[in-house]
Amino acid sequence: MLLLAVDTSGRQGSITLARGDQDRFEVFESASIQGGTFSAELIPQISDLLVRHNFGAQDLEGLVAVTGPGSFTGLRVGLTAVKGLAEVLKLPIATVTSLEVLIAASGVANAVLAVLDAGRGEVYAALQGEAGREELLLSVAEAADLARSRNLRIVTGDANLTAKFEQSQVVTYRSSEVAARLGLKKLLDGDTVDVMALDANYVRKSEAEYMQKLKR
Asked: What does the alpha-carbon distance between residue 52 and residue 158 come to, in Å, rounded to a whole number?
């Protein structure tokens, strides 16, 4: 299966063209997209990536979208592009969250708390255990207390955020590549979402909604 994974949830975005089946996974190439240029660069970058490997959009067999949590504007741009491709090409869509990707990149399967910076002294957090994954919005102090009380390993992709927690691990990874690997399995298993149901996982309200609430 030839697939394209798109992640515009962070300060930097990335796309990955990959192929695989139940037994193998191969990345053709990944490309980074600078934050603030998603709306102008995402579609041209996708087109260029396909051309460089002698593919056309019609050769794609599946799409993988990182749904957040993350940048409100970035997610909107990325998911709109995925929806457009899926509608025109009649492609299935698999979704993964930013926190799901971070946990997979860490290689820690259980007893882990993945955290991403949410601003305002808060973090997006995912508690991964034997019962599954739960995603939360917590203060830094609440996340630290949760990790201590349950003896969880904290992982993050941000060195500045890692410094706020004791015994935490910073993970270096290209998010769209990890998303492509996770998404391939979901596509092959039929774990997909309808294009009309594809939506961002903001965990909390947008900045505009937050400021409006403060004015009430």
From this structure: 32
Phi, psi of 152 (to 5 degrees): -100, 145
Same domain, 76 and 40: yes
Q: Mark whether 11 and 116 lie in a shared domain.
A: no
pLDDT mean for each 10 residues of the chain (216 residues): 97 96 97 91 97 98 97 94 97 98 94 94 93 92 95 94 92 97 98 96 59 46
Tell me which residue range forms the domain holding 178: 2-97+174-207
Which alpha helices (DSSP H) does the chain contain, by range? Answer: 38-52, 72-89, 98-106, 140-150, 159-162, 175-189, 207-215
Q: Amino acid letter at 95?
A: T
Q: How far apart (Å, rounded) are the C-alpha atoms in residues 110 and 165? A: 19
